[in-house]
């Protein structure tokens, strides 16, 4: 048996030192991991507390402060971002609860602010507690969030992942291999053909060239007659369908001079259609809202902070630019919070347009008929760009009149005529057609 030498002293000493080092390091690492875990838990708790305070502050800010203050730009009052770091907390308690009382006390800072803002009186909020004010300040002291493109996020995530072979590289390699295989098969086939010719080996030849399909079809009189009949009636059908679409603009979606998103206004913010189109209740037309209606909100909303759609180009910068177009058109300076007097007309493009010989009254349908706007205009609360949803043809209107029952609940407009006609027809509910909705003179006179 081969003799095994004992380990040298240096080897044994090194091994022993390694074991002692591992014995000492393991508890230290465990302690560090435990400390890191405790610290992480404390950070989570702290972050949770901060998030709760910020959420409460946001609600209080929007209900009490947003009418006069914006976060990052001048409104009726100054921008609020970082206000809690500019002034002492005790002073802010007094200022927010009753600024006029603080001014009358002779406080220099309060009087300076009052003069700087041309004597604008701040609404007192005596009902806000210290905790409420702390929550508001926690909200306004947040750093401004930068809008990050999903593309950039994807690139950042990709850079953080372990580097590997790109799928594009694999596809290129496979394509090259496939091409090499095709070239090799072509070369083999060419070599075999040349070898067969040199050795007088007979090559297999295909059958004689068959008659062309079109020639065989042309020589068959029955097929030609059937084809002519099908072609005639098919052409008539498609010609009739095409002619019936003349003047039907269903799906029409023009680009407006100022982008207006019904999805944001009617959908996300749930603004009622008749807030902007107020004449729909009492007039033939729904009307185009004036820019003053827009300024009811946008006097204090000069930037967009909602959801974005990067894929379709609807970014925060896009929406902010459209708001600036509104300001340019009406002549509003957000910095000075005043009108400049320089107005520019906005040439809106009409979407829904009936021919002149067709009469339609919005008030008759909205107020008397009680119809929702979506019944004719479709789900406008989901439309980023307004589209003509319905065909607005005569047949479409007649079909609606034939199938729609008149809403009688709380509708005194039709009460008397409904009572008379329901007895005449022996029914409890009446359609629009039964109440004269199919008379030509109702729409054409």
Q: What's the structural blueprint in terms of helices and strands?
A:
Elements lengths: L8 H56 L18 H4 L2 H9 L1 H6 L3 H9 L13 H11 L9 H11 L6 H32 L14 H7 L1 H24 L17 H7 L4 H4 L14 H8 L17 H15 L1 E2 L4 E2 L22 H7 L5 H4 L16 H10 L11 H11 L14 H4 L2
Antiparallel strand pairs: 1-2
Helix pairs in contact: 1-6, 13-14
Write down the CATH topology of the domain at 41-140: Cytochrome Bc1 Complex, Chain D, domain 2
CATH 4th-level superfamily of the domain at 41-140: Cytochrome c-like domain
Structural class: mainly alpha
- Which strand order does the major sheet show? 1-2
CATH structural architecture of the domain at 41-140: Orthogonal Bundle
Radius of gyration: 39 Å
**Uncertain segments:** 1-18, 158-163
Tell me the major beta sheet. Answer: 2 strands, antiparallel
Overall description:
This protein is mainly alpha-helical and 445 residues long. Among the domains are: 41-140, Cytochrome Bc1 Complex, Chain D, domain 2; 213-244. It contains 19 helices and 2 strands. The protein has helices at 9-64, 83-86, 89-97, 99-104, 108-116, 130-140, 150-160, 167-198, 213-219, 221-244, 262-268, 273-276, 291-298, 316-330, 362-368, 374-377, 394-403, 415-425, 440-443; strands at 332-333, 338-339. It has a two-stranded antiparallel sheet. Strand 1 (332-333) and strand 2 (338-339) form a beta hairpin. The protein starts with 8 loop residues before the first helix and ends with a helix. The model is unreliable at 1-18 and 158-163 (pLDDT under 50).
């Amino acid at each position: 048996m081969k003799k095994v030498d004992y380990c040298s002293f240096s080897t044994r000493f090194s091994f022993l030192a390694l074991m002692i080092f591992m014995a000492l390091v393991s508890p230290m690492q465990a302690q560090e991991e435990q400390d890191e875990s405790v610290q992480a838990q404390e950070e989570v708790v702290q972050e949770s507390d901060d998030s709760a305070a910020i959420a409460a502050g946001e609600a209080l800010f929007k209900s009490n402060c947003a009418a006069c203050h914006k976060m990052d730009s001048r409104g009726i009052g100054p921008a609020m971002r970082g206000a809690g770091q500019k002034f002492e907390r005790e002073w802010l308690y007094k200022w927010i609860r009753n600024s006029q009382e603080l001014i009358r006390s002779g406080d220099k800072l309060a009087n300076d602010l009052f003069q700087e803002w041309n004597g604008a009186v701040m609404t007192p909020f005596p009902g806000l507690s210290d905790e409420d004010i702390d929550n508001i300040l926690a909200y306004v002291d947040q750093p401004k969030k930068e809008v990050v493109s999903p593309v950039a996020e994807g690139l950042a995530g990709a850079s953080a992942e372990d580097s590997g072979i790109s799928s594009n590289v694999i596809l290129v390699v496979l394509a090259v291999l496939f091409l090499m295989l095709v070239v090799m098969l072509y070369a083999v086939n060419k070599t075999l053909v040349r070898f067969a010719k040199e050795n007088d080996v007979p090559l297999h030849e295909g059958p004689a060239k068959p008659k062309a399909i079109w020639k065989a079809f042309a020589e068959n009189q029955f097929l030609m007659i059937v084809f002519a009949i099908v072609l005639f009636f098919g052409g008539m059908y498609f010609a009739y369908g095409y002619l019936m679409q003349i003047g039907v603009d269903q799906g029409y979606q023009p680009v407006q001079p100022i982008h207006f998103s019904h999805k944001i206004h009617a959908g996300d913010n749930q603004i009622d259609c008749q807030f902007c189109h107020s004449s729909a209740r009492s007039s033939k037309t729904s009307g185009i809202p004036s820019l003053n209606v827009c300024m009811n909100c946008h006097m204090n909303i000069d930037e967009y902070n909602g959801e974005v759609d990067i894929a379709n180009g609807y970014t925060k910068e896009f929406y902010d630019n459209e708001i600036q177009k509104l300001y340019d058109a009406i002549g509003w300076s957000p910095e000075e919070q005043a009108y400049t007097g320089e107005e520019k007309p906005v040439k809106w493009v009409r979407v829904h347009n009936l021919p002149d010989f067709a009469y339609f009254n919005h008030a008759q349908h909205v107020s008397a008929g009680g119809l929702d706007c979506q019944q004719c205009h479709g789900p406008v609360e989901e439309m980023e760009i307004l589209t003509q949803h319905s065909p607005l043809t005569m047949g479409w209107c007649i079909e609606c009149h034939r199938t729609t029952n008149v809403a009688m609940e709380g509708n005194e407009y039709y009460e008397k005529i409904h009572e008379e006609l329901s007895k005449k027809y022996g029914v409890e509910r009446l359609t629009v057609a039964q109440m004269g909705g199919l008379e030509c003179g109702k729409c054409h006179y």
